[in-house]
Amino acid sequence: MSISAVATPTAPAVLAAGARRTLSVPTVIGIGAALPTTRTQDELWDGFFREHFEDRSIAERIFRNSGVDRRHGVIDPLREDVREWGTEARMQRFMQEGLPLGVQAVQACLQDAGLDPSDVGLLSVVTCTGYGTPGVDILLARELGLSDRTQRLHVGHMGCYAAVPGLAAAADATAARDKVAIMLCLELTSLHLQPPTRDLEQIVAHALFSDAAVATAVAPDAPKGFEVVDVVARTDVAHAQKMRWDVTDQGFRMALSPRVPKVLEKHVSGVVEELLEPRGLTPADVRGWAVHPGGPRIIDVVCERLGLQEDDLEETAAVLREHGNCSSATVLMVLDRIRRRRDLADGDPVLFMAFGPGLTLYAALLRVRA
Q: 49, 137, 143, 159: which one has the fewest Cβ atoms less than 10 Å from its Cβ?
């Protein structure tokens, strides 16, 4: 079943004072990625983390059962040890490494979308792994040759789900003001390698997380792409402490309770129903599931609660396997894989969903325009 077609509005060239304009249809029309150095999970375990975690058998089991085969990092722990670095040094490195990766990802996105830098009206940078002022957004605008009138937005420290509210903000700007928006998710988790610990939550985090820069373009009234139909959120504040990203004197430290999948289990169905039911849709009607691969158990929970088959989340599992968990950038990589590998038709619904600190679920309903 397809989502009912939405008439494409024609924006007036000039508006009278106080007049209301017709909203444009925000559509994702391009995605581009840039990845730093790649290491296999075996290389990372044997060459660094075996010693880091004192060759504990439980740590090795967590690494082997993570669902990750390869990961990327601007910090290669086999060549550079940052465990004792202070937060200032890590933030300086974020700016140094993040800018060229961000430029590469946005340039790839613009090329994929058939856009020129002069077309960009809004540049949004999403990250929870690094900060600086002037920020990466300003430096990116300079390096990319964007207009000095380009508006900018920084979405900071929301974690793995941030691509969804980031996309919502970009879509709102496109719909309301006819702006082409570029959203860059830039996550360099390798900068936050922590000192040795026996904390199981830290072992899980160090077994999963990876670096990536992924950009997407949203344009008004585009004939092809993914129309952004609606966005919903659910935050279970009673369980806020089960997933955290704490700023410390030695970088940012992940707290990741093994109870997270059980909390998500309570809310996944409700979030999906809120998007689908008003449009007469069910999970069986969805033609693509772009789900953030937080880990193997989370993938299992989504399948179980929504009655999906393993093949429905093949792209999610493949991105986890080939790239690891790249925080907010990951779900865009899943969407990109879906558009390249699935046979999608005009009107097909696609679910774009991610989870993170709070404990928060965010999801967007997309509609294929072809």
A: 143
